[in-house]
Each structure stands twice: as C-alpha cells, then as structure tokens.
Amino acid sequence: MVSLGCSKNQVDAERLLFSLQQAGFALSGNPEDCDVVIINTCAFIEDAKKESIDTIFEFAARKGRGRLKGLVVTGCMPERYREEFVRELPEVDVALGIGKNADIVAAVKGLLEGRTTSAFGNKEDLSLEGGRVLANQPWFAYLKIAEGCDNRCSYCAIPGIRGRFRSRPMENILEEARRLVADGVRELNVVAQDTSRYGEDLYGKLMLPQLLTSLCEIEGLHWVRVLYCYPDRITDELLDVMRTQPKIVPYMDLPLQHASGRILNAMHRRGDHESLKALCNRIREKVPGITLRTTFIAGFPGETEEDFEILCNFIREVRFDRLGCFAYSREEDTPAFDLPDQIDEEVKARRAEIVMELQAEIAYQLAMERVGKELEVLCEGFDEDERRWWGRGPGDAPDIDTRVYFTGNARPGEFVQVKITGAEGYDLIGETVL
C-alpha cells in the first residue's frame, strides 16, 4: 500500500491493511513482491491530486510486469470524483469511495479472479473502529478521534469529501489507545479534522479535555500530542489540562490560515490580527514553553498587498515555533472557487515563498535560543553518513516538523536527554546527557 496525504488518511489505510491481513493476505513493503498494490489517495488541493494521479500512473505502468496483477485506489480522490474518476482513469482496476472501505477484502479477492469494481456509498458508512497495521515506526501512532468537518471554510473541499463531523465514542478511543500502547506505542498523536470540537455532537459539550485526561492514565504511554485544533474552541479547560498533565507534550497545532480580518471573513473564519494574537498570547501564558505550530494560505482571492503585509507582520510579532504556508489552491465545489479577484499563480507562489523565508529566520533564531538547554528526545534512527542519531523533541510532530540530531548512546524508540549545542537551519544539534 501507498498512503498519501494526511495522518487521518493514514489511519484509514492502516485499517484497510488490518482487514486484508485478517483475511489471510500477506503484506509487503516491496511492490515487486505483490500481486496487488493499493493507493490510498489525497484530493485536498491541486498538488495532492497531482501526486495521487502520478502515483496511480507509476504503478499502472508496472501491471503485467512481474507479479503485479492489479491496482486498487481508495481514499479521497475516488470519493471526491466518483464516476468521473472511474471514467478518466481506466488504468485503475478497483475504485472504492470511503463509504465502501469495508468492501476491501471482497474487492481484492474479485480483482485476483479477474473482476474490476467501482463502489461508492454513504461517506458516513466509513468505519472509525477496528484493528490497524501501523505503517510507521512502532513507537508512535496517530489516534483518530473524529471524522468529517462542519466548519465549512470557503476554500476547503473536506466537508464534501468526508461528510459531517462525527466523534467516536470515548470508550472506543480509549480501548484502541490501550491496545496500541500494549503493542509498544509510546507516543499517541491525537488527530481529526477538528480535534478541539471532539465530543460536542455525542455528548453535547466539548470533551477533548476529558479525553486527554483519560489517555494520560494509560500505563506505559509516555507522550500525548494534539494536532489540528480549531482556534475558536481553545478553552481554558483544555489549556489547563495541557499544562497540568505531564504526559501531554506542550505542543499545539493551530491552523490559523490568515491574519487579515477581511480575508478571514472571506474564508468563512472568524478573527483578525489582534484577536488571533491575543489567542496565541493566552495559550503561551496558560501553557508556558508551549510549541505553537500553524499553517497559512497565501494568495486567497482578493488578498491585497496590504492583507499580505498584515499576515507577514503577524508572523513577525507572534514568532511561531513551527509554520507552513501554502499557495491558495482553487478547488471546484467550494465557495471560494467563484470569488472575484483570483490571484495570479506566480504571485501566490511568491507570497508563500516570502512567508517561508520569513519563518526560516524566526525558526533559526528560536533554535539558537535553545543552545545550552536540555531536551527530552525520542530517538528514531541513525544517520550513517553523519554518524549521529536523530529523533524528535516534544515540539516536533512526526513527518511535519524538525529533527534533533545528536551524538552519544541511544536506541530507536528510546527517550533520551539531549543537551543542545547548536542548530542547522530548522534542526537542532546536541549530545546525550549521561
């Protein structure tokens, strides 16, 4: 399997692999050994769609050579485009929308018997429960606590792809978390389209603080990290739990998207430069030493030079620890698609580049401020060329954030204390403390 896109999509992929494994299929990370390749696609923005299509063509070209008999495509792309996807990509033997993930075993068996399949159902039939085959290192896992989104940001296709927001029952989440920890997971990364809304639909109130508290009671679990928090639902109760529970790393992923009130209003989001700055200050005051990660969109329709300067000034003032910026992607079936004053592609790309250049300076300054301090690091591997270990600190989420490179004694999956001695760009350099 090749799983593309976000960590939430990866969890779906891991459930598919578990179903196939339980049905007696052997799994391999080497496509040369496989009769069937599954591509779990992303279709969030144009770049993600291009990556999905390129990957489909790459494996379609291998069919009939060696063992590979067929290609299965799942995830957001067939779900979003359905009949158009099937019509335009005849290279695909099986296409399943997310509401038909439960059909994966029958579909693969049918493919091996020479039958092609395309099946789409209700998005909300996507099961959020069941076992998983982890697709990453065995010491960390993503824990998906909800599916779908009701925020309806004007640029975003997710509600149309994934459906309405729906939380998992807390007892099911905790059962899965205990099972993962029993299998060796030391770090759980809590994910959803909007984690801060967890429980509102099931229990009538925001329940993320209670869920995090219960997760911290699991013996053997070392770190809990929270991703994808929506800014409107950052309560004092949530911040108090993050401050007082030692297993929760002081880290918050808070996608803000912009700082100009005019652009945020056009995005169907609330806030402006001052209110969002106040929110970031409140988070830092409530949770001392917290790492703040955010994402921004550059070049949204109607974004003037003044709006862009508001964004840049906001970044300079808040000094985010982690930041990503993306050029606006014009997505069909979203309200922003038809907005006037669409911005030239080169201008969008240049603005995104300016933001990332600005952030690179800030990130290096923040990294150098850590020199001489000690940091707990989860060791994840050894760099043979540089002859040093690498891992992640509390402020580093898997896949998206920076690394800590260090010398000394360590083992992958082990937590070690590292004294920081320098920085290389975004990354920290150090040595283990005896």
Layout of secondary structure:
Elements lengths: L1 E2 L3 H16 L13 E6 L4 H15 L9 E6 H6 L1 H6 L5 E3 L7 H9 L4 E3 L20 E5 L1 E2 L10 H5 L3 E2 L2 H13 L4 E5 L8 H4 L4 H8 L7 E4 L9 H9 L3 E6 L7 H6 L6 H14 L4 E8 L6 H14 L3 E6 L17 H24 L5 E10 L4 E5 L11 E4 L7 E10 L2 E6 L2
Parallel strand pairs: 1-2, 2-3, 3-4, 4-5, 6-9, 9-10, 10-11, 11-12, 12-13, 16-18
Antiparallel strand pairs: 7-8, 14-15, 14-17, 15-16, 17-18
Helix pairs in contact: 9-10, 12-13, 13-14
Describe this structure in words.
A hairpin with a 2-residue loop joins strand 17 (415-424) and strand 18 (427-432). By secondary structure, the chain is an alpha/beta fold. A six-stranded parallel beta sheet has the order 6-9-10-11-12-13. The protein has three domains: 2-125, Rossmann fold; 140-368, pyruvate-formate lyase- activating enzyme (Alpha-Beta Horseshoe); 374-432, OB fold (Dihydrolipoamide Acetyltransferase, E2P). It has helices spanning 7-22, 46-60, 76-81, 83-88, 104-112, 158-162, 170-182, 200-203, 208-215, 236-244, 261-266, 273-286, 305-318, 345-368; strands at residues 2-3, 36-41, 70-75, 94-96, 117-119, 140-144, 146-147, 166-167, 187-191, 223-226, 248-253, 291-298, 322-327, 374-383, 388-392, 404-407, 415-424, 427-432. The protein starts with a strand and ends with a strand.
